Structure formats: structure tokens, C-alpha cells
Amino acid sequence: ERNKIYEEICNAKIDSEYFEEKMAQTISGAAKTKEVQCEKITVADKGKPGQGSDKRDFLLPSLSRRFCPVGLYDPHGSIPIWNIPSFCDSTSSIIIAESAVAARSHEEKEFHSILTSANLQQDLVVMERILMENIFQPKLALYRQIPVLIEPVVISDTEGEGSEEEDSEEDEETLAEANESPAEDGNPRLEQLWSYSCDLTSGHSVSSMAWNKVNPDLLAVGYREFVSQDQKKGLACCWSLKNPMWPERIFRCEHGVTAVDFSLARPNLLAVGMANGCVAVYDVRSRSDAALLDSSTSLNKHKGPVWQLRWVEQDRGATADDKKERLMCISGDGRMTQWFIQQRLDCSDVMKIKRTESGKKKLPGEKEKKSEAPLSQQAAGMCFDFHPENPDIFLAGTEEGHIHCCSCSGKEQILGTYRGHKGPVYKVAWNPSSTEMFLSCSADWSILLWHRDSHTPLLTFTSVTAFVHDIKWAPKSAFVFAAVNERRVEIWDLTVSIFDPVLCCAASPEGKLSSLLFARNAECLLLGDTCGQVGVWQLHNLPVPSAHQVRLCSQGSFSSFP
């Protein structure tokens, strides 16, 4: 029936004016090569013990097809033995098997050389950077304070123009919402951008954080873990903004990491302090996790945990080539040491922190109480901070709650002692703008503001009944500082209130906050917790101090603040 219809159409074309014969040529497009990526094809070898009869039954069909004359091979019947050549015995099968094994091993070596080649590794790094940029572009744009880019939607030719206009309007609205500040009411607030975390750091506690002095996008984080009072192995990881999901460098340590810091003169060197008193120096340019130098063989190594270490400049007015540094450490054994980096790592004592008598005055008629002799004449050191302008002056916080103002030069090392805390002093920090003021935080739930010339605190900040683990001055304001306790992070602004923080953010239910750090090139705050996460939070709408307040701060007068 279809043939009849076709014949009728052909006959109708002969006398019709609507059909005209014309030659045409199909245009073939240019050939294009596309590469695809699939999952790894797994290959498994299986076998069982075989006998000579099994080899014979396996080889007979294939050999008969190759060597039997035409017409003598019957696939459904039996095969006569005299049709098999005499040279096809068990020896040939062994040779074939050996050649197959050799070919397979050659392929495995070739695959291994490809996977470990430097070019492939570099290409994978570039691909990883591109993927991370696509995933975190809106968050990174907010961190850099640049406009957020929205990827345009590709529309096929078959769709109408109305849908194209609607999609363009939606893209404009999305772009406006992304670039719009989340704090329209003008109140200070925190917005979380992302977290530096992975499976490797899960379960560890963030003990210390430090930015690289040359590359502001490189962050060093120290991790430690305590289980039943047993210190497990620690980690020192280097995170980059280019990949917030996995660290660039991972250094595995035998003990928990308590302090990290980058060198300024040699920014590739990372100093790491550990809970067993060991100090190690790593080269972040190397992909090996072995330490460049360590103090495990030093006779002067610390006997207690290294609670803080820092690279300190010696000649601040010198050029970059002539600039020298010293690595300073404070430990639980009561020693402040200076480390020398030569062929090996060795140190000398800058000072030994001795226990001081209580500054409590005796009331009239009160008898003097006999005190028990201390187990050690030295007080455990907890923290220190060098003066922003004079590298010979530093503050040292102790476990007994005292803060010593010390000098690296001269016979009298302790210039003065500040008594105000009732518990161990966890952190001290000089004000970067008003260099005669400094902060201290303690396990007695308080934060104290001090003046260098006064041995009594100027202001006391207390908001919750929890240990205050860390404090930091804001890098761009002399009146703003941040503090973390076990429950929350607090942002204090002395120009707004000296009684309550202007901003509070509670810790996650899974863990407690342990450390903080301000970003160097962004309005962001980094918070470390006991779950191994380092959250990056953006600060919004912090008040700007007036010129009068800046003048008061430079004079060290905080009493007139609200």
C-alpha cells in the first residue's frame, strides 16, 4: 500500500508545476574531538587450581580452529588428537601466560608514571582551583569586598523571547540581593561565610592560628586533642583561600600542637610549639611533612607545654635583607627562651619567671598566716606579647594570675608586676594604636584594661561566667576588641559601651570556642572551636570612632567613654 502511494506521488510530480528537480549537497561540519571523564574501571583477577586435563580441554577448541584443515573441525563433536600439532603442549600455554603477566605489569607501571607525573599534578591543582572558585565565588567576593558575579543562564533557540526576558530579570534581582548588605538596619552583626574544616581535623581542638606575613591568604592552624587526659598526636595545617575544603600543607606531629607562627624574614618557615615542650620548624614550600629542625635532641628543651611562640624582629629599622628575627617561646616550666636556627635548633633562657608573694595587704591586728612552701620556685608562663614600638619590652602572663612587664636588656628583667586576676592569665595584647594600653583575659571570667604606668586596671569587662580563652584588638580601630569564651564570641566597642558588648554570637552546640584571629586584609573574624573548625565571619556595621575619640585614645584616656 505504501508503494502505491509513493508511485502516485511520483506520477503527480511529472505534470505538476509545484515540483522542480534541483541538486543539493549536505554540508558536513568540522570534526571536533571531545574528551570525557568516567569513573575508574575496576579489574579483578579470579582463578582456581587447575590440572593438566583442564588445560587440555581449554586449549583443544582454540588450537583446533587454528591448525585443523578446513572440513575436519566439528564444533559439536569430538576432536581427534592427531589434528593437534605436536609443538602445542603445556609449555606454550606457560609462555602465553608469562607474556600476559609481563604486558599487564608494563601497563601498570605506565599508568603509575602518568598518575604521578608533575604535569598531571599541576593540571589537577588548576582544575581544583577552578572548581573552588565556582563554588565559593559569592563568599569570596564578600570577603574581598568586590561585586558578586552571577553565571548567566543559557537559553535554547526553541524557547520564546518572553522566558529570556523573565530569566534576565531574575538574574538582576539575584545579583542585587547578593551584592546587598545583609544589615540594612545599621546594627552590628556577624555573617558566616565558610569554615576551614575537613575529615582530618574533625575531633581536634583549634589551639592557635597565625597569618603568613607575606601572603595574607595563607593561614596556619594548630590542632590538638585530649582524650582521658592523654595527649594524642597533633596537626599543623596551612589553609588557603583558594581551597577552603582541604589544607595546602599538613604536618603531622607526635604531640598536640599548642602554638604556631610564621616568620617575617623567611615567610616559608613555620614554627610549631607542642604540648610536650618540643619546638619544630617546618618549611611550607616542601611537600614533605618532616620537620626542618626540631628541639627533641636539645639539652635545653622545655619541660612543659609551649603555650605561645612568636617570631620577633630585632632591628625594626633595618632593610628586609638585614632584618633579623628571634624565635621567642614561653612554657609551662616557667622559662622564657630564645631559639637559634643554625644547623640545629638550640635555645638560651631570656628569663625565668619566679613566683611572687601575694600583694594582699594585711589588716590591722591580723596575724600573719603560715603558707606552705610551693612545690616549685618558678611560675608557669602562659602567654606574652612584645611592645609594638620597643622590641625589648614585653608582657608575660603567668598561671598564678600575675602579669610581668619585662625587659630583654639590663639586669632588672622584671620592670613591674600587675596584679588583678584571680586565675591563670590566658592572653595579653598591647593596643596597636595606643601603645601604652594593653588587655588581659583570664580564667576568672574577666577582661582587664591596663595602662603601663598604673598597676591597677582601668576597666574591667565581665559579661558571662565562663573562661575567657583569647582576646585580640581590631587591626583598624583602637577601641574595638574581640574576646572568646566557652559560650560565645563578644565584640566590644569602647566608644559605645564599657558595660556590655556591642555584638555577641553564640558557639555551635557541637563544640566550644577556643581561639580567634582578625583577618589582615578584610573585615572578617576567624573563630576556632573544639570540633576542629575555623569559621570565617564577616563583620557588618561596626561604628567608626570620631576624631575626638581618636585623640583621647592617643592620650590613653578611656575614662570619658560611655
UniProtKB/TrEMBL annotation:
Ranges of the WD repeats in the UniProt entry: 418-460
Keyword Transmembrane (UniProt): no
Compartment(s): Cytoplasm, Cytoskeleton, Flagellum axoneme; Dynein axonemal particle
Principal subcellular localization: cytoplasm
Gene3D superfamilies membership: YVTN repeat-like/Quinoprotein amine dehydrogenase
GO cellular component: axonemal dynein complex; dynein axonemal particle
Entry keyword Transport: no
GO-annotated molecular function: dynein heavy chain binding; dynein light chain binding
Biased composition (Acidic residues): 158-175
Segments for region (Disordered): 157-188
Record keywords: Cell projection, Cilium, Cytoplasm, Cytoskeleton, Flagellum, Repeat, WD repeat
Positions in coiled-coil regions: none
Protein's GO biological process: cilium movement
Signal peptide coordinates: none
Protein name: Dynein axonemal intermediate chain 4
Source organism of this protein record: Sterrhoptilus dennistouni
